[in-house]
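tool_log.txt
---
The assistant was asked to compare two proteins side by side. It first ran the structure predictor on the initial sequence, then on the second. Raw inputs and outputs are pasted verbatim so the downstream comparison step can read them without reformatting.
(1)
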Amino acid sequence: MTHLRKGRRKYYDFFSHIYDAFIRMHSRQDEDDTRKFLVDAAHLEDQPAPRILDLCCGTGSVVLAFESCYPESVAIGYDFSHGMLGKAQEKNVTGRVIFVEGDAALLPFADDSFDVVTCSHALYELKGGTRQKALREMKRVIRPDGYVLLMEHEIPQRPVVKLLFYIRLLSMGSKDAREFVKGGAESLKQIFAHVTLSHSQTGKSKLMSCQK
């Protein structure tokens, strides 16, 4: 692992201690509605035991929401931060979610393995080259009729939260990240055959649904 990647991992290990508080400050009471919006978009109603992969899972809120709705599922949370995964495991009260530490740009899963792959509020944080590799890996492991669901923040309107949001962008290379935040759906069409854009009821998140 390069010195830069080690530094990024340390950053996220530290950030894991305040991550949930940051999300609550941005989303306030909308977290549950946003996660339900994402779960509903997966179209898993007819699959009693779906295979679910949540990349850059952070502290695990999304994959745990899926597991709660589909207790017979194979649900995997995947992140390269040991600190984030530790916080996620603390929430894994049923023990049914599997948490795996690894690189989103090099997934240890076979082709066509999952019914849904999600990446929530994290993809913009990856550098351009790493992001493209991660997206191609998502396409590789999703089944032909499955969905890759990419949820990102809309740019916040509240001044304090907006400032914190841009500080995070600056910390990870503002130009590259900002370009993706503003035009993510268009760049995804270079990889996926079908891309649709929708917005959460709160207006704080956008969802890009992708298929092979």
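(2)
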Amino acid sequence: MKYEVIEENGFKYIEAGKGETLVLLHGLMGELSNWEATIDHFKDRYHILVPILPIYELPILTLGVKSLSKYVFKFIKHKKLSQVVLIGNSLGGHVGLSFTVAHQAHVKALVLTGSSGLYENAFGGSFPRRESYEYIKEKVAYTFYDPATATKELVDEVFKSVNDRSRVIRILALAKSAIRHNMSKEIPKITIPVSLIWGKQDKVTPPDVAEEFHQLLPNSELNWVDKCGHAPMMERPEEFNEYLGKFLNRILLK
């Protein structure tokens, strides 16, 4: 990752650019580097913040989507921001939804890509063969349309996490919390503009999940990225950035 991680007041984050603020939220197994192509593309026009969600720091008894949403609220207050565009992938989208339901006045617009919150078919309730590098490699590759997107660096990071006992307990606890925290009744309350940017071949949050989000969100648009899995900003960054750029132009440059 070529961007420096800033540490202050208990927060860790990346910051780049100036202008309207975009807050990028990573997924459960996501790294900040997942957003690198997005940061590169938009940093000349927007103020970009990528907080590290404290998945491995929060007390395990309170670890969940809502506690991560509260952390994002504290972070936005710390940065003295009044309104932001939230952009979330996977669990990060779920956190963005939870934040928006609780603090809609602080959100100008929301972008979801492969978001949980309705349904997800992730790693399941355990990692039965977590000691097997090939097994973890297969699981990471499952996330993408093109298995080659699962680089050795990415697989190494996931393998390290799931073979650290304290980390894997937290990962599984948070995954179960996300599955329990279904937001179908709360989502229609979100009236700000929402852009759904979805991989057509997403096996973790399949296309019908995107369709359901689109039906439930009263002010939403749905954009499909073909030959793409669960993380369009990584697998098809040019198409993702094009859809995101058009949405931001429409919402922020009125």
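---
observation on (2): The chain has a mean pLDDT of 91. The two ends are 34 Å apart (CA to CA).
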